[in-house]
Amino acid sequence: MSKLTRCQNGHYYDSNNHSGCPYCGVQSLDIDIQKTMAKRSTPAARKQNAAPRPAEEGRTMGVFHKKMGIDPVVGWFVCIEGGDRGRDYRIVAEKNFVGRDPSMDICIEGDETISRENHTIVSYNPKDHRFRLYPGDGRGLVYINDEELVMPMVLNPYDVIELGETKLLFVPFCGEAFTWKKEEKKE
């Protein structure tokens, strides 16, 4: 039968199994032990208009990046409603992952109702000059012009995309009238 004992800090323990309180335990020893503290790191915000980052070893790079040495802008999202109202987000060729984590291609930090990773995906296909919006694998829904996005849809100029409490206006740069040519980068 267990014999419950209460220590001076109010913890109950079985004194048949323990000689002292297992919760307070090593605190009575004469060694310097500190409480474990959660590491709080605030990730630095990724500048959307910053110079291109050097390619990371082993990281998949887009066709434009490989040929030109940079990921040129092909369009923008402009926040028209929400915590980041007035801010623009660059869209580059191929897939752009959208979320609020700084590791995302398009990071919308001002809205906690947006999933950290892959809330949605926007792509630009340089072969057919089309932009598409894909549902992500986040918890929240995505709307395009007030319609729920359930399958990939072609984006048209000035479509309104809604994620969480944020509304983004789509502004294309590349299309039928202009597109970046995949020229070899000059060394």
UniProtKB/TrEMBL annotation:
Coiled coil: none annotated. Residues 96-149 form the FHA domain. InterPro entries: FHA_dom, SMAD_FHA_dom_sf. PROSITE patterns: FHA_DOMAIN. Gene3D superfamilies: 2.60.200.20. SUPFAM superfamilies: SMAD/FHA domain (SSF49879). This is FHA domain-containing protein. It comes from Tindallia californiensis.
